[in-house]
Write a structure and sequence with these properties.
Number of strands: 5
Shape: globular
Helix content: 25-40%
Order of helices and strands: HEEHEHEHE
Number of helices: 4
Distance between the termini: 31 Å
Largest sheet: 5 strands, mixed
Radius of gyration: 16 Å
Strand order of the largest sheet: 2-1-3-4-5
Length: 160
């Protein structure tokens, strides 16, 4: 008997984990997930956007507009930062991250500082914003590669 030929690729697998992680986000507008992977294709950590531990997502605001104190932006942590902070191993040096949305400038700083060398992203819908332009500038300077995820179009269903 020969092995199966229709198994998913590593990229499909890890982006799938990032997308599944995004489904944990309680943000009513934007759900982003991340999956950090070692150079030998082992999952090191995952994260999604949300509030820090101890900050109730029923008490803190999810609004995108209004006074800064009353919007989510002062309180929410992005998926990339959560994935980095969730890692309990040693170094992330030389690892790669799969993320459903291109990292902002703040996350780019954390990715660079943590030693992540490659970013595989599914969506770059904010490509022309100052935050993403700054992110790309820093990653270029630091030698961090960023690569668009090439979706296969394959549909994978889970029954939960």
């Amino acid at each position: 008997m020969e092995k199966r030929q229709d198994y998913i690729s590593w990229d499909e697998y890890f982006m799938g984990v990032a997308k599944l992680s995004a489904a944990r986000s309680k943000d009513p507008n934007t759900q982003v997930g991340a999956c950090i992977v070692s150079s030998d294709n082992k999952i090191l950590s995952m994260g999604y956007n949300g509030f820090p531990l101890g900050c109730s997502d029923d008490e803190f605001p999810w609004d995108r507009e209004g006074e800064p104190y009353d919007s989510k932006y002062f309180y929410s942590a992005h998926s990339e930062l959560n994935a980095i902070l969730n890692y309990r191993g040693g170094s992330l040096e030389g690892s790669k991250i799969y993320v459903t949305l291109f990292p902002c400038n703040e996350c780019a700083k954390a990715l660079i500082q943590s030693g992540i060398r490659t970013v595989i992203y599914a969506d770059d819908k904010y490509a022309d914003t100052p935050s993403v332009l700054a992110s790309k500038r820093m990653m270029n300077a630091a030698g961090v590669k960023y690569v668009p995820y090439k979706a296969s179009g394959r549909r994978v269903e889970l029954s939960l």
